[in-house]
Amino acid sequence: MAILRSLKSTIRRWGRQTHGQDLIEYALLAAFISLAAYGAATQLGGSLNSWYAAFSNDVAEKEKKSNCSPSGMAHSQGKCHGG
Q1: Do the beta carbons of residue 70 and residue 80 sit within 8 Å?
Q2: H or E, element range at 48
Q3: Is residue 45 part of a domain?
Q4: Which structural domain range is residue 64 located in?
Q5: Which residue, 2, 7, 32, 51, is the most exposed by fewest CB within 10 angstroms?
């Protein structure tokens, strides 16, 4: 029984002590911010990747339609840029 009373008093003392509590709160806050930043970066990265792929496809399609690629005939004759 004495062991249980000693254990209870130790647990109560730990519960009353606030020393180090701020450190734990800051660590939890830092962990939460890190997870949020990771999630945002992952989401933004996927969105940017999709946007750049669509942009690249648009440029390639317009280049194909206008035949103004660097190796195209119109470009070598100076017809692509108003020349």
Answers
A1: no
A2: helix 21-66
A3: yes
A4: 23-83
A5: 2
Structure confidence by residue, pLDDT tens digits, 23-71: 888 999 999 999 999 999 998 988 888 999 999 999 988 888 776 655 5
* Distance in angstroms (rounded) separating the CA atoms of residues 73 and 47: 36
pTM tops 0.70, yes or no: no
For residue 79, the one-letter residue type is K
Total structural domains within the chain: 1
Contacts of residues 13-20 at CB distance under 8 Å and 24 or more positions apart, as own/partner, are none
Residue 4 zone, left/alpha/beta (φ > 0; ψ -120 to 50; rest): alpha
Report residue 67: phi and psi, to 5°.
55, 35
Q: Is residue 62 part of a domain?
A: yes
